[in-house]
Amino acid sequence: MIKKISLTRYLVEQQRVDGHIPGDLRLLLEVVARSCKSISQAVNKGDLGGILGAADTENVQGEMQKQLDIIANEVLIEANEWGGHLAAMASEEMDSIYVVPNRYPQGEYLLMFDPLDGSSNIDVNVSIGTIFSVLKKPEGSPGVSEADFLQPGSQQVAAGYCVYGPQTTLVLTVGDGVAMFSLDREQGSFVLIKEHVEIPLDTKEFAINMSNMRHWDEPVKRYVDECLAGKEGPRGKDFNMRWVASMVADVHRILTRGGVFLYPWDKREPQKAGKLRLMYEANPMSWLVEQAGGAATNGQQRILDIKPTKLHERVSVILGSKNEVERITSYHGTL
Ligand code: AHM
Ligand code: MG
């Protein structure tokens, strides 16, 4: 019989045997995983649960919220606020940080999440997900404030996502490589399916929203033009293109078989650094990709080195197979 390793066991071993994570962080990750299980339940029910469609509200970034965005946000808050392991949470769907109410004990961790990534795919039954990132509250700071969250991604102590696709799969790093766990619905638990995930250094597959082509900057145009030129072009090989429009699904594909993902700065709103959010999307995904041997930059610098100046900061994102990311970054004249 094949021995199944549950997420709980994996985390206990990370704590006890390898000493990678303290007990409180293990608990936190278990609670996040439990939240993902209930979000997965809601996603699965879809129309039968009466939870599809718009919520008629806007989030802090001026985007229309879906009912499921709000439900997923509430699930994560409710599951995480009482355990004593967190000081505060921040979410793509909330204007400001959520400090753990003082009726509960306060812990030393800060949790950030995009509760439902790929919102435009909810109603059309295409893969979506939850992305999360964990930081430690800086030592010696009294109480907790937004400033405590403004740490570069290199300070993360855990990061991951859960993709709700044909399978529900949780992908995690605590700084010791990347592990994947699929939800076994009969058992009700996440089971290890892959450890030491590795992204191939080279690829023939890129992911970008081509409808924005006319707005791109020169280095991005050059890169995509060269891919499109195929065997006859400077790259000497044919490329394939994929775009799910759910970052979780696109990154999951890259962690599984390689590739490169771009959501670059563009000329439509030059004052915006990009579409994706640094704290909830780019940082956790960049750390996962680096932990799997890939790379992640904003065209100019490593994403994990960016010092955030505000909670909902946006960033240009280029991540995936290392050689390809380095090539695109060099086209920006910075390598
Ligand atoms: P969301 O967090 O509101 O769902 O937005 C983020 C998503 C990413 O998952 C995805 O890569 C991108 O937006 C898709 O954007 P577009 O609709 O421009 O293709
Ligand atoms: Mg998102």
Helix content range of the residues, please? Answer: 25-40%
Indicate the low-confidence ranges by residue numbers.
none
C-alpha Rg, in Å? 19 Å
Helix-strand sequence: HHEEHEEEEHEEEEEHEHEEHEEEH
Structure description:
- This protein has 8 helices and 17 strands.
- It is 29% helix and 24% strand.
- Strands 4-3-5-6-7-8-9-10 form an 8-stranded mixed beta sheet, sandwiched between helices. Strands 12-11-13-17-15 form a 5-stranded mixed beta sheet, with helices on both faces.
- It starts with 6 loop residues before the first helix and ends with a helix.
- A hairpin with a 3-residue loop joins strand 7 and strand 8 (168-173).
- Magnesium ion is lined by residues 92, 114, 117, 281.
Give a quick precis of the structure:
With 335 residues, the chain is an alpha+beta fold.
Tag the structure with descriptive keywords:
binds 2,5-anhydro-1,6-di-O-phosphono-D-mannitol, binds magnesium ion, globular, Fructose-1,6-Bisphosphatase, Chain A, domain 1, D-Maltodextrin-Binding Protein, domain 2, 335 residues, eight-stranded mixed beta sheet, alpha+beta
